[in-house]
Amino acid sequence: MYKLKRLTTSLFLAFSFSLVQAADLSYQYGDKTYAGKELPAAVRIQLNELETKVNQQRQEIIDQYILDAWLRDKAKEEGKTPEEYAAKALEVKEPDEQALRKFYDANWERIQKPYKEVKEELVGAVWAERQQEKMKEVLQQIAKEKNYKVNLPEPEALVFEVKTEGYPSKGSTNATVTLAEFADFQCPHCKEGSEIADKVLAKYSDKMRIVYRHMPINPSGISRKVAAASICAEQQGKFWEYHDLAFKNQDKLDDNSPLKLATELKLNEAKMKTCLDDPKTKEALGASEAEARNLGVNGTPAFFLNGKPFRPQLDMEKELIAAVESALNSTTPLNTTPATTSTSSATTPTTTPGTGIGTCNSGTTTSDANCKPE
User: Fold this and answer.
1) In the list 215, 218, 221, 232, which could disulfide-bond 275, CB 3.0-4.6 Å?
2) Gyration radius from the chain CA atoms
3) C-beta atoms surrounding 159 within 10 Å
4) Structural domains of the chain in order of their starting residue, each with its CATH number
């Protein structure tokens, strides 16, 4: 029989968190107190993610209660036991080999084990996923029959001023929509995200632009050198050509790549070397990294659409198009509010940053991200 889950932690969060919203939190550091919209961007983003998770838990708790009550009512109407009715209403097919393989392929990055070793565990995972989908279907039916809906408190709306002036960009010079991307040249997810962003840019070429921001987090140190070289390539008017070539050769990047790529693009080698030795190049790279950290970026790629954190969940291309359309239909001015005093809301859920295309962090290497166990 289907049973209502009792989640003690969820209940605690759901009822205690409502007493103190993020906007009411504060802390003192030195002689200054930070509160509400004056909290640093990185803190506000994490609090926003926490509030979103709490709302999801609230929704889950109420959904499960309503589902349980509805099943009992239906069972009574049909003269069946709750167990009998629930077994039929929530019945799902046992997963076959094709379903197991599909699930494995879609989740191999976090599984990181050969298929044969985890096959038996996958049966339970796929079955649970199917049951969740079945429960959603039944809840949709309940919504129609009983006009069921849950009213949840809205998390704080977020929008930040992301610096774009002086950084490489492409697209319309009079763009209504600006997508700022913090990325690492050795991160395969950054390469994928860049390609998707370019597809969407082509669709909105007269209304959108992309701004590239450096966030070299790969522990090899190679991406940092390539990032510095791309700054130097920009001085010779070849940033995007260098950017594309670096991603094209991502699997082969090494300590010699910065100048190798420059040579392939026929850039002036003497100017490249002078630029690479110039402290201002290191300062520019450091400034981009510092801003990324202040904005709560701890993995790449990280996107901000008109200052709003954009976190693709399932299909980045579709979600980015939807976010661009939403921004085009909005009358909110572009990047006019300082990061410490801004308000507005993220356009997508922030449950798992970067889920739509994956995320690289400081412990990720290119080979780790691309190597799928057999």
Assistant:
1) 232
2) 24
3) 23
4) 8-146 (no CATH), 169-370 (3.40.30.10)
